[in-house]
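Thread: Newbie trying to understand structure tokens

Hi all, I'm a second-year student working on a class project, and my supervisor (Dr. K.) asked me to get a predicted structure for one chain before our next meeting. I've only ever worked with sequences, so writing a 3D structure as a token string is new to me. If someone could post the tokens and maybe explain what I'm looking at, I'd be very grateful. Here's the chain:
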Amino acid sequence: MGRVSAGWTIRKRAGRGYLVRFQHQGRTLERSTGESNRAAAAKVAARIYAETVAGVVRPSHEAPLVDLLAAWLVDYSRTHTPATSKVVEGYGRLFVEFFGATERLTTAGYASFMRDRTEHVTRSTLRKELSALRMFAAWMAAERGVRLPPIPSVPKRGHDGTRSALARRRVARALSPEDVARILAALPVRGPRNGAWVRPFFVLMWETGLRPYSTLARLECPRHYRKGSATLFIAREIDKAHYERTIPLSAAAREALDMVCPDGDGPLFPHLRKAAMRAALEKAARMAGVEGALSVYDFRHSRISQLANAGGSLPGVAFLVGHRHVATTSLYTHATAEAARAALDRV
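---
Reply by user tm_fold:
Sure, no problem. This is what the structure looks like when written as tokens:
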């Protein structure tokens, strides 16, 4: 921390911009300057300190940024799935931490934010964060009548950003049907600690290609499935893309669903924990002789790839796995000699 002027100090947050700290009316206050450059931060810090000490009153529409973001997130959650809302909520916390106050949402503040974030995330992630900030700005204009400066776009060329060590792999693991069969055979039917269904969960994911946690983990009986049914209803609220539909089921999928479906009403996969499912999968993979890192999502990716490369209808595959656009499903196809031979055989 370095003292710049009598009455206030600034300090650099680890990996982020500068904060100004000062005493006012017997309290220690700390505010974000929204700047990562020391000289620029000092100028903003002086203004924040002067305004606070002088008792400058902001207009009523300039509520604390944290309150405005909270109100926006409530509105956002009404039209988006809980999973998506949770991600955007994380962006909201980031905006509060970095900007600190609505008046820091300036062109200079945006530039500082972009410079800072490229040291911590990739350009792709930064684009998503700025997209969320644009949605907040649009909400401010519509709901509060406050027009924020335009949020810039990430340039096509420049710093590639920094990929987190905890980020998911760039390329999903491709499992063969033989690998999957051995892994499924090695998985326990139920978890040893809380009795959560394990093998039926992975069987259902492999047979349908559905998203594991935003969809499969939220299935309920009888709303989405009734014992003995030949179809599974995917409601809007349990689909990431809000793609409501009724999908056909294979014999193996029906068997797994009948096993976990309770006699009365209730969730099909209660007590499911992500960490426990991941640990069970890793252990089963080792027992099955499948080497290398493996994630739960690799099951979904491998199944979609298999279905897309099998020569069937891409619109049908998209409908099954929850892609609104066939172009998304086509990303899972691979140009190989085997695919070419399969195409010739079909003709």
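A couple of things are worth pointing out once you decode it. The chain has three domains: 2-54, 65-144, 177-346. The first helix runs from residue 38 to 54. Feel free to ask follow-ups in this thread.
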